[in-house]
Amino acid sequence: MHLFTQEHPQFGWCGERFQFNWSGPPAAVEVFIDVAGRTIEEAADPGPDPRRGEVGEGWTRIAHQVGGHRWAYDVPARDVQRLAASATRVLIRDAGNHAYSAVSTPESKPIQQLREGQCIGSGGSHAQGEIEGYWRGHEDLVDKRLWNRGCPPTPLSEGLFWACNNGQGLHLFTREHPQGERCQFNWSGRPNAVEVFIDVAGRTVAEEEPDPRPGEAVGEGWTR
Question: What proportion of the chain, given as a percentage, has pLDDT over 70?
């Protein structure tokens, strides 16, 4: 395939080219990129930076503090697992101080556990060195609050995050958990306004669709 303008160095001897086959006739080639109809200025703007706890389009909150140690899923716990199948990252932040946040690296342990219907951190030990390999964010949160040791397997119906045997760790337990409801960054501290997001763009489970395959019709989110 060749797509040459008049500015191409070879224009003088071969002219403009718009063809799939150099040896064949011109063709009605179309080229798309997956940016949702934005101007160049809008596309160049990096927008919210999740590494600083900033979220915008493309992120969906799945849990938040209601008051004290009480917190709630924004979607049913069973749907978190299905939404996570289309996401790649998890973001945790303080609702009142967005800079106090941590975002997981793409396709790492936190999103994998949500896809499995498991509380993040459960089902084993996650040492500090391992945690630093797939969480990025506020030093205090990443260094102190996310590691754990010896957590049993725990379903999402009982909790969303368990820094087991970490006396300064993050705990998000529902009332179904044997240790009762908890919503705090520091097990030894007071309740906190914890929020949890995943990077799936505000879709319901029913709206989840596979990516378009080559040659299929394109819709919103693609620009010719």
Answer: 78
Residues 167, 173, 175, 176, CA torsion sign: negative
Tokens representing 21 are 């086959």
Region 95-120: mean pLDDT is 96
Element (H, E) at 184: strand 182-184
d(CA 55, CA 201) in angstroms, rounded, equals 11
**Distance separating alpha carbons of residues 36 and 42, to the nearest angstrom:** 10
pTM, two decimal places: 0.68
CB 151 within 8 A of CB 162: yes
pLDDT tens string 50-89: 666 676 678 999 999 999 999 999 999 989 999 999 999 9
User: Mean pLDDT score of the chain, rounded to an integer?
Assistant: 84
Q: Quote the CA–CA distance of 102 and 92 in Å, as a whole number.
A: 5
Find the largest Cα–Cα distance for the chain.
Answer: 78
Are the C-beta atoms of 182 and 176 separated by less than 8 Å?
no
Residue of 183, 176, 186, 198 lying closest to 146 (CA atoms): 186
- Tell me what pLDDT residue 61 has: 94
Q: What is the chain's Cα-based Rg?
A: 23
Looking at this protein, which amino acid is placed at residue 93?
A: R
- Distance between CA 142 and CA 173 in Å, rounded? 19
The CA-atom distances, in angstroms, between 214 and each of 2, 31, 33, 217, 219 are 19, 12, 13, 9, 13
